[in-house]
Amino acid sequence: MTPLVRPNIRAMSAYAPPWTGLDRTQYLRLDLNENTRALPEAIRPVLERFWASGAASRYPEYQAFLPRLAAHVGCAEENLIVTNGSDQGIEIVLRAYLNPGDGMVVAQPEFPIFSHVARVIGAAVQGVPFHADMTFPTEAFLSAIDDTTRLIVLINPNNPTGSVVPLQVIETVLTRHPGLPVILDEAYCEFTGVSCLDWLARHPNLILIRTFSKAFAMAGLRLGYVIARPELIRELYKVRGPFDVNACAVAVASAQLDHPELWKGYVREVMEEGKPFVEDALRQAGVKFYPAAANFMLIEPDDRDEVVAFMKRNGILVRPMVAPAITRTFRLTLGPLPEMRRFMEVFVQYLEKRMA
Ligand SMILES: Cc1ncc(COP(=O)(O)O)c(C=O)c1O
Q: Measured from the CB, is residue 211 less than 6 Å from ligand 1?
């Protein structure tokens, strides 16, 4: 018993990633929407220089990185703050805006860090269920925003459902509620090629959140960023710690930005080869899946738990979902063709065994 810890935190469970305790390096990891590849060889010299320069023993500096990131994003440095993964971007924005009891509207099932952080703060999650076909619940979402709402969250495309939030809906939310902050999580925008960045000029309440974890293969290095109006970014600097983003992440991200052909090549392989291959193969096999816009999708076989266990026995991790609306599904991270062929081979083996 720890009497001084706030009751809302005592009532919570820790956010436990799936497969905790498992040596994931022994598997094809299609469970956490990571990049399925290691960092490209072209990045290795940066890590060697990082080592040789002794940068690991110095506190990190971001001055040189911010203009490069701004050029990549297409905004001013003043619009940016880097964060320790976009998880931290989410956390600092929620901490900046929400008091205990305040409402946060979000369509569910959503990326769980939003609700987790809201609960740590003691805020109220105003969850709006997605439609049964996992399309965005526009009417219900708009009517859920009420007098208690202090923050609106849109995730486009949403994880885990893969659903797109129609741009018209984002525009309506921003226009109808100019006095409320609207987070737009664009963690997967490199895969969709869709962003609302250009709307910052006309919608000062828009706050974009992005990450280097997915297309840039840097999930283990932890680098994300928030894009917003300079007035808000200045406030967020008060919430984030001065050295929260590590120097190695910044060095690797700079190198990735110097080689856009590398991450763009990966995105192309996933979206133009791996994804259509899996979709066709699932259709042929008569297995239900939900249309998804990025590098992951929900698959709903007849016997989800057996499929997940069979995959694991055969060296492949996929993510069984636990949110009530999707307990019959698992989420598959999409990758380039070789990885997707391997996944389908094992999946078809399973289906054939079941038919036999
Ligand atoms: C929608 C969404 N936002 C944010 C994140 C957090 O990513 P990271 O903290 O690795 O930047 C994820 C990770 O899966 C995600 O799916």
A: yes
CATH of 7-38+261-355, one of 3.40.50.360, 3.90.1150.10, 3.30.1300.10, 3.40.50.720: 3.90.1150.10
Where do the DSSP E strands lie in 167-238? 182-185, 206-211, 224-227
Cα 342 to middle of ligand 1, angstroms: 25
Q: Give tens-digit pLDDT for 226-235.
A: 999 999 999 9
Query: CA–CA separation, 137 vs 130, rounded Å?
Result: 5
Distance (angstroms) between ligand 1 centre and the Cα of 185 equals 8
Asked if residue 270 lies in contact with residue 336, where contact means CB atoms within 8 angstroms, the answer is: yes
Residue with CA closest to ligand 1 atom 16: 159
pLDDT by residue (tens digit) across 85-100?
999 999 999 999 999 9
Q: Which fold has domain 43-259?
A: Aspartate Aminotransferase; domain 2 (3.40.640)
Ligand 1 centroid–CA 135 distance in Å is: 20
The SS3 assignment for 159 reads coil
Please tell me the distance from the alpha carbon of residue 276 to that of residue 253, in angstroms, as a whole number.
29
Question: Cα–Cα distance between 186 and 158 in angstroms, integer?
Answer: 9
Q: Is 219 in the pocket of ligand 1 (CB under 6 A)?
A: yes
